[in-house]
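Q: I'm writing a short methods note and want an example of a predicted protein-small molecule complex. Could you take the sequence and the SMILES for fe (ii) ion and return the bound structure as tokens? Please keep the output block clean; save any remarks for afterwards.
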Amino acid sequence: MSVITLQGASPSRRRREQMYRDYMEFFEHSDKHRRWSPMSDIPWDLLERSGDLDRIAERRDQADEDLAVCLETFCGVELFIPDYTKNGLNISREIFGQAWFHLSWGYEEAKHALSFREYLLRSGLRTLDQYLDYEEKVLETEWKMPFSTNREMACYGALQEIATYLIYAGQRDHYRRKGNETLARLFELVGRDEAAHASFYRKFMRFEFQEDPEGTAEDLSHVISHFEMPGASLVPEFEQRLNVDGVAISKQLFMERGIMPTLKFIGMTRRDMLNAKRRRDARLLAEVA
Ligand SMILES: [Fe+2]
Ligand SMILES: [Fe+2]
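A: Understood, no commentary inside the block.
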């Protein structure tokens, strides 16, 4: 049996081989443990039997409207999958593992959009016309990459995926408490995918950090200080949507359960991050001076 070694290989080959291995791990794990179907793994029959359909049709309450706004917002963010994957493939064309990850990622995100849309329509929270109006409005804008390099986008991916996971985990817990099994399961399934996406990007970042600790730390500090969720500049009336509980997470939760665990995973401390930011700011200042 041949032993694959990366010793002495060029940085580009090391990256390609590492990404290939990370992708294989991602793919194998998702195939064995995470494959699910929006049609057969979400208990839609419980929604039909819950009595919610009649109630929503007759007298919907504020909680129903908040849920509709949440689902619509989540669905809106997922509607940019063509832009995300197109850009993702463009920056990773020569890195097999990363490019193939983007395709698997797109397939999984597409299931999220489909599940949100199905819930909105099956529950009666939105009519088909209302949904289609919203979809058209969302797609008037095109998503552009918020950062320009592959390494910065890996940092962004890791943070964006963990933030999304935390939002969906919050929704999962909320609907478990409320006894809405259909929504609890829906958010459990999509949240599990987001956690796996975050994990892939963290491994990508850890590789980059091992290759170039200072440069990667500077990129991460830059991404953290300019971070915003994809929906922020894309989903209609996003600012108003943020007033609805569950649409987003607090800065504190993001720091504690998003940023800090990401830093720890790649082997960085908060102090390392602050030093990297200072270093980057000083360098940029010197460049313009
Ligand atoms: Fe998603
Ligand atoms: Fe994701």
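A: Remarks, as requested: The mean pLDDT is 93. The pocket of fe (ii) ion (ligand 1) is lined by residues 78, 109, 112, 164, 190, 194 (CB under 6 Å).
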